[in-house]
Specification:
alpha/beta; DHBP synthase; Nucleotidyltransferase, domain 5; 11-stranded mixed β-sheet; 22 helices; globular; binds zinc ion; binds fe (iii) ion
Length: 755
């Protein structure tokens, strides 16, 4: 990767050890020629791979070979790299302020003392400020700031930490901050006063829009329930949990349980939001994250954040500066226009954000960090494959939680989280982003991969691109392939796919599948038996729809609405609507057949009293997960039905009957939830065992949005391992639809290289 200070580090170590030779980048990586004493060369190799390795550099492999002595060589040089046709991506991700910069920022004698934009080769913005390649200062939004002599001297000194650090700046030559009121009228311009006033406003319970690295945050005091409630109201975000920021692990530990691994992830240069179990005695306002059992915390990651927190702030809600599900706002004028009714003040700066990048979110599955949203800090770092893309490929992703992906040679470059394409602004942002990244990575796609769903905007977009071959890929096959791509396997694997919605090859909506898959093909080995689901778009929001569908499936012709009035009236007061749903299913109007597990979760959650509506995706399932009673090993019954012609069918009718009976008898909702989750883990294990028996495959790949459920996934992984399966799951991209583009890419890349 370029721009992480690798060649200067090589230069420094070589010079210190008195070695001669040179270093350059080419398409294969970095080549270093060294001449000197054998011991010194060994020391060089050791130091380069340990204490002197630049913090952001990763050495994938290191090979050495002896060459003849070059007589006249007496010094070490950095050779100009040949960038034509380079396979190395030029742009790196935005990284958290490093410890050296923080130390300088706190040092009154340093000329960058208290400067909110301090950065160096080891930290600071990259991806968010690049307009075009090559990655040089004139091609970034820093081009408008002319470096002063002091900054310039550091920038051009190969032994300096700021050698070729493109965003280098200081108080006299770089960007500045100021504070405005909600109308855009400037209140403060002097740095210390801006910081002090902002902190004061926040501590008084005000909402401040703060421009950061990848966009605006809306900030409020997380200990002040009234402030958080007001933010919730204004942002039209009724229920979704808010992320929070603190300036130390110790402060986070007051409110959440932080494991050693979680602490490690919080402190990485990527600085994601990490989901942590709540502490019962936490003083965080209830309205921050109701109905879930975790808090999302991140550490400060920009110098500005540290300066602000130094003013006595404990914990801030730091939620994306946008309205509802619209794209993150990153421009000053746009912020005033769109957030003027929400924020009481705006902390602005004049370092333009060229690309908005959301905060990334990480949680833990089987004690390993797993992304739920991959964006700032991780994008655009490519995923390296063994499989070489013989042509450039573009994968359009899915419509929900969209990301897209470019394939070039052995690099798969996934975009950051874009959002739900059904929002017109998000779709517009998607089209622009595709074009921007295509240019940034010099990709000329000849093959475009997309979802099989004919109604997806991402599919229609693929079909609208002229002069390319389009490959339509089944949604759950893409989910499995995303796991295969990450783990560099081509299959066959047993793919267990638990998901909300995915268009099937038979036109039904799939969502609980056991696919025996390679990157070349898949067979639908087993699935949840179809149940009817009425009401298309509304079906994923209103829990009454899957409930009635599952009841009709379970009780067949014996189903009578009146028998279930006691239950259904709690969930949907409009009894006429209940009747209409029944009729829609009977007459097959606006009704689909589905094996969606996400909708089963919605139904069970609502029956267990968790509410009746998903205000945001997976709200009901997350609430159901959060109440699971401890140490319950019981589970509801399921059946796996074998037929000659059909795939193996998972029958959950007994489970539905038992749940209804438990509810009738007033069983504890936490116990119902545990028995339900346990039943599914058992059923999925059963599917995997049947597939192993019949196909003689021992590797299971888990993917799909339902596997964002920690209880279910942890339990299933444990069961599978106890039964001697090799278990693979997503580690680099989310298991939800944010990972679809990588899977599409893997399948498309395989198809062209093996044609
Ligand atoms: Zn730094
Ligand atoms: Zn300067
Ligand atoms: Fe999906």
């Amino acid at each position: 990767m370029q721009g992480v200070g690798f060649r200067p580090a090589v230069y420094r170590i070589a010079c210190q050890l008195g070695l001669s030779g040179f270093v350059y980048n080419d398409t294969k990586g970095v080549t270093i020629e060294l001449q000197g004493k054998g011991d010194d060369i060994n020391t060089f190799l050791q130091r380069l791979q340990s204490k002197d390795k630049p913090p952001l550099a990763q050495i994938a492999s290191c090979e050495t070979v002896d060459i003849p002595v070059i007589e006249a060589e007496d010094k070490f040089t950095i050779k100009q790299s040949n960038s034509a046709g380079t396979a190395l991506s030029q742009v790196t991700a935005d990284m958290t302020t490093c410890i050296d910069c923080l130390t300088e920022m706190a040092d009154e004698k340093d000329f960058r003392y208290s400067y909110p934009f301090i950065n160096c080769t080891n930290c600071g913005p990259r991806y968010s400020i690049v307009k075009t390649i090559p990655y040089d200062r004139p091609n970034t939004t820093m081009s408008v700031f002319e470096m002063c002599d002091k900054c310039s001297a550091q920038y051009t000194d190969v032994t300096n930490r700021r050698f070729h650090a493109q965003p280098v700046a200081c108080p006299s030559c770089g960007p500045k901050i100021w504070l405005t009121n909600s109308k855009g009228k400037t209140i403060q311009t002097e740095t210390d006063a801006v910081i002090a006033k902002t902190a004061q406003l926040l501590l008084e319970g005000k909402i401040v829009a703060i421009k950061g690295v990848g966009g605006f945050h809306l900030a409020a005091d997380a200990l002040n329930d009234e402030a958080v409630k007001r933010l919730r109201q204004c942002k039209r975000r009724d229920h979704k949990p808010f992320a929070m920021m603190a300036n130390s692990i110790e402060k986070i530990k007051k409110h959440a349980i932080v494991s050693n691994l979680a602490e490690e992830i919080l402190k990485t240069p990527q600085s994601p939001i990490v989901l942590l179990p709540k502490k019962k005695d936490s003083s965080i306002a209830l309205s921050v994250a109701d109905d879930v059992n975790t808090f999302g915390f991140m550490l400060c990651y920009a110098p500005l954040h540290y300066l602000l927190f130094a003013q006595g702030i404990e914990v801030l809600v730091m939620t994306s500066g946008n309205v509802s599900e619209e794209p993150l706002i990153c421009k000053n004028d746009q912020a005033l226009e769109k957030l003027g009714d929400i924020a009481d003040a705006f902390l602005m700066h004049d370092r333009e954000i060229y690309r908005q990048v959301d905060d990334s979110i990480v949680h833990f599955i089987d004690n390993q960090p797993v992304p739920l949203r991959r964006a700032r800090g991780y994008v655009p770092t490519p995923i390296i494959t063994k499989q070489t893309c013989t042509k450039d490929i573009f994968a359009t992703g899915a419509d929900l939680k969209n990301t897209f992906c470019f394939g070039k040679q052995n690099q798969l470059i996934c975009s950051e989280h874009i959002g739900d394409l059904e929002d017109a602004d998000v779709y517009h942002h998607y089209i622009e982003s595709v074009e921007h990244l295509r240019k940034l990575f010099e990709v000329e796609p000849k093959l475009v991969a997309c979802d099989l769903h004919p109604g997806y905007l991402s599919t229609r977009y693929a079909l609208s691109i002229p002069n390319v071959e389009v490959m339509k890929i089944q949604h759950h096959w893409a989910h499995v392939a995303s796991v295969m791509a990450e783990h560099n396997v081509t299959g066959p694997v047993i793919g267990l796919e638990c998901d909300g919605t995915g268009y099937g090859t038979d036109g039904a909506i799939w969502g609980c599948e056991c696919l025996v898959a390679t990157l070349d093909n898949f067979e639908r080995f087993a699935h949840l038996d179809y149940y009817p689901l009425a009401g298309s778009d509304k079906a994923s929001k209103e829990a009454i729809r899957p409930i009635i569908g599952l009841l009709k499936k379970t009780y067949g012709d014996n189903f009578k609405l009146n028998d279930f009035k006691w239950l259904l009236d709690r969930i949907e007061q409009d009894t006429e609507k209940q009747q209409i749903i029944v009729e829609q299913i009977d007459k097959k109007i606006n009704t689909i057949q589905t094996s969606s597990l996400g909708r089963v979760f919605d139904a069970i959650a609502a029956m267990a009293g968790m509410g009746n509506y998903n205000h945001f995706e997976a709200q009901l399932p997350m609430a159901l997960e959060s109440i699971i009673a401890d140490d319950i090993e019981q589970q509801y019954d399921f059946e796996l039905i074998e037929t000659d012609s059909e795939p193996l069918l998972l029958d959950l009718r007994k489970m539905i009957e038992q749940i209804i009976s438990d509810i009738q008898q007033g069983a504890d909702a936490g116990v119902i939830s545990a028995k339900f989750h346990n039943c599914l883990a058992g059923a999925l294990l059963g599917m995997a065992k049947s597939a192993r028996e019949s196909k003689n495959i021992n590797t299971v790949a888990l993917s799909g949005g339902v596997f964002c459920n920690r209880y279910l996934t942890n339990r299933l992984v444990k069961l599978l391992k106890e039964n001697d399966f090799a278990v693979l799951f997503n580690r680099a991209v989310p298991s939800n639809d944010g990972g679809i583009s990588l899977g599409q890419m893997a399948i498309a890349a395989y198809s062209i290289s093996n044609k």
